[in-house]
Model the fold of this input.
Amino acid sequence: MAIDVAGLMTALASRRPIFHSEADFQHALAWDLHTRLPELGIRLELPIEVSGKVLHLDLWLSGPGHSVAIELKYKTRGLSVKLDEERFSLKDQSAQDLGRYDFLKDVRRIEEIAQSRPGLEGWAILLTNDSSYWKRSSDSSTVDSAFRLHNGRSIAGTLEWGSNAAPGTIRSREDPITLAGTYQVLWHDYSAASSASYGAFRYLAFSSR
Done:
């Protein structure tokens, strides 16, 4: 059994086209997974020990013969929209270079958990209304070029900051990320929550098995 992430996200978008926060996204996805797969137990923010260190996992599903580990990111540009009687006021998070690094670090974390638990299904999912995540940069010499997530890119191997990255900017994120797998970047439409700028949401999902 494998999680149908595309079907899951399509169904979720019909009910929740936008979220207040990453925690809101996490809880909504967890509820939909519970509804679809009631035979699997589900935990949020579960601490898992891997190679002597503790990783706090966003979502963990487990049942007879099957476990699923999921890491989530929700990156937003400023947007205010009212749906039904609910007002959503999203923050302009910016710092996209750090957002890309953190998502790929999630991918590596999922790989580490999958390597320590044969047969585990792992997913890293990024949902955003910030088009700079899925668009190719016109400048190939940016300090975060190794972490770029533009559509159509293949990502593999060791990823590290450019030599001119400011120490203050990458503080606590200095370490290179070495991926075991190869990942093809393919963004999917999630929702059109508003006709305003940054009203369209897309998601990227990488699987590690």
Remarks:
- The CA atoms of residues 121 and 209 lie 5 Å apart.
